[in-house]
Structures are given as structure tokens and as C-alpha cells.
Amino acid sequence: MRSCIFALYRSGFLVKWHFNVLVFKFLQVVVDAQKLMEDKDLEMRQLLDNIHAGQETAERYQERIKTLKRDVQSRDTNIQALKGKVAELYVDFQTTNQNKILAENEVR
After folding, report:
1. 7: confidence class by pLDDT, cuts 50, 70, 90
2. Which of 2, 36, 60, 89 has its CA 20 to 30 A from that of 51?
3. Model pTM?
């Protein structure tokens, strides 16, 4: 058996066969690596899409927040103006009421 293997080795058949096995294994590793890289590339593109979608959503929310802040400030300004008007009307009412009481007292 040894002499048969040695003869195959000397003829170069065994060396060529072993070389072909190594090349096949190497090519298999390369194909597996390529598949892994394609999978990771796809995963990366999906993650980037998710990031962009998240950024767009965040930008929409920031715009909405700015709009709401402007609305709140506008309402606060209106509330302050109405409070001032109520205070003015209260003073007018008190003045009118006091003048009415003075007028009634003069008539008596």
C-alpha cells in the first residue's frame, strides 16, 4: 500500500489531487466569505434605511414641536392680553359702580 501511495506521489497524481482539494476548500471559503459580505451589506443597507427613516421622523417631530411652541407662545400672549382687558374692565366697572353709588347718594 505504501509503495502504491509513494508511486502516486512520485507520479504527481497525489500532489495534484491534494492541491485540487486545497484549491476547492479555498474557493469554498471565498464563496462563503462573499455570501457573508453580501448578507452584511444587505443588513447594513437595511440599518441605514432605518436610520434615515428615524432621522426623518425626528425632523418631523422637531418641526411639530417648534409649531406647538409657537402656538403656546401665541396663546400665552393672548391670555396675557385678555387678563389685562379683564383687569381694565374690572376697574371700569368699579369706577362706574362707585359713580353710581355717589349719584344715588346725591339724589337722596
Report:
1. low
2. 36
3. 0.55
Indicate if the pLDDT at residue 10 is higher than 80.
no
* Cell of residue 106, nine digits: 346725591
C-alpha cell at 4: 502504491
CB proximity list for 15: less than 8 A, separation 6 or greater: 9
What Rg value do the Cα atoms of the chain yield, rounded? 45
Q: What is the pLDDT of residues 23-70, one digit of tens each?
A: 888 899 999 999 999 999 999 999 999 999 999 999 999 999 999 999
User: What would the grid cell of residue 61 be?
Assistant: 417631530
Burial class (CB in 10 A: 0-12, 13-18, 19+), 14: middle
For residue 81, the Cα-to-chain-centroid distance in whole angstroms is 39
Q: How far is CA 86 from CA 4, 8, 76, 82, 89, in A?
A: 115, 111, 15, 6, 5
